[in-house]
Amino acid sequence: MITCFIRYEIDPYKKDQFDIYARNWGQAIPQCGADLIGYYSPHEGSATTAYGVYNIKDLAEYEAYRARLMAHPLGKENYEFAKGERFILKEDRLFLKLASAPHTPLRTK
Hints:
Shape: globular
Structural class: alpha+beta
CATH class: Alpha Beta
Radius of gyration: 15 Å
Order of helices and strands: EHEEHHE
Strand order of the largest sheet: 2-3-1-4
Number of helices: 3
């Protein structure tokens, strides 16, 4: 299992458009086969940094998933929305594997 971290640089005056984009991915990504952890938009601190995070089996499955996402009606619509509204200024992807497992259970009082 690998985790894809997407770092977005967004237009700070178009955060609402990014939030719509994120909610759309919240529907389309799971339907296309990735385990979506979530999309995160600016709240405090930087007004231009946002993230998307999801798990996928491996890079081969990632390629198949991307093809499904590009063919998915909401996926195509969301790509066009981002392109038309131009709220994403920069996008970087990083694939990492979990190195800290197994985790010790959280202690509670």
